[in-house]
Design goal:
about 0% strand; 10 helices; mainly alpha
C-alpha cells in the first residue's frame, strides 16, 4: 500500500471514530431526552471507569480499557441499534461484524487487534469482557438516574433499571449499582413526602375557617 493510500485510510478511520462524538444514543432519542449523550460519551465514561480497577479485582485494567473503547465502534457505520429498531439480533450482529471488518481493514495490520478485542467483548471470552459488559449496564442506569435528576422526573426511566435487573455479575459493579438504587430510592421517597405534604396542606387550607372563599 502506498504511503498516500495509507494516510488516506488512517484519516478515514479517524473520521469514523470522530463521528461517534455526534451520534446520539438511540434509547434516549426514542424517549425524547433533551441534550442526550453521544456514543463516544458513553464509551468515554466506561473507559474512565476502568481506572477504578485495582489489584484486588484481578483484572487486566488495560485490556478492560481497550474493550470499553472498541465495544461500540461498529456504530460509527451502522448506528446505535436497539431492540426497538425492528432489527433481529442476528441481523444486528451481521451488520456490526461487516462494519468492524471495514473499519479494521483501514488500518491493517493494526486493525487486527481491534477486531480481536471486539470479538472478545461480543462473545464474552474473558473475565475482562464480562466485566466491561457490566460497566456498559452500569453506565446506562447511572445515565438514566442522571437524566431523572436533571429533568426533575424521578422514576421516569424505570424501564432502564428493569432491563438490567439481575444481570450485574461483578461484586464491585454491584456495589456501585446499589448506591445508585439507594440514592434513587431516597429521591423517590423525598418526592412522595413532598407530594403528600402539599396535598395535606391544600386539604388543610380548604378546611381552614379563616381562609376566604
Amino acid at each position: 500500500m502506498s504511503e498516500q493510500k495509507s494516510s488516506a485510510n488512517i484519516l478515514e478511520f479517524l473520521e469514523l471514530v470522530g463521528s461517534l462524538k455526534h451520534i446520539k444514543r438511540t434509547g434516549w432519542v426514542l424517549r425524547n431526552v433533551d441534550n442526550c449523550e453521544s456514543i463516544s460519551g458513553h464509551m468515554y465514561r466506561m473507559s474512565m471507569m476502568t481506572f477504578l480497577i485495582d489489584d484486588s479485582l484481578k483484572l487486566d485494567r488495560l485490556k478492560c480499557m481497550q474493550l470499553a473503547l472498541v465495544h461500540d465502534l461498529a456504530e460509527s457505520i451502522v448506528g446505535d441499534i436497539t431492540p426497538f429498531c425492528g432489527v433481529s439480533k442476528e441481523q444486528k450482529r451481521n451488520m456490526e461484524m461487516k462494519a468492524m471488518e471495514d473499519i479494521c481493514k483501514l488500518i491493517e495490520p493494526k486493525g487486527n487487534q481491534i477486531m480481536e478485542l471486539f470479538l472478545e467483548y461480543e462473545e464474552g471470552k474473558s473475565s475482562e469482557a464480562n466485566f466491561v459488559k457490566d460497566l456498559d449496564r452500569l453506565d446506562m442506569v447511572l445515565q438514566a438516574f442522571e437524566y431523572e435528576r436533571r429533568d426533575n422526573c424521578i422514576s421516569k426511566h424505570q424501564e432502564f433499571f428493569d432491563s438490567t435487573e439481575g444481570k450485574f455479575e461483578h461484586p464491585f459493579v454491584k456495589s456501585i449499582v446499589q448506591e445508585i438504587y439507594n440514592q434513587r430510592n431516597q429521591s423517590i421517597s423525598n418526592l412522595d413526602k413532598q407530594v403528600n405534604g402539599d396535598s395535606k396542606n391544600n386539604f388543610n387550607l380548604k378546611n381552614d375557617p379563616t381562609t376566604s372563599r
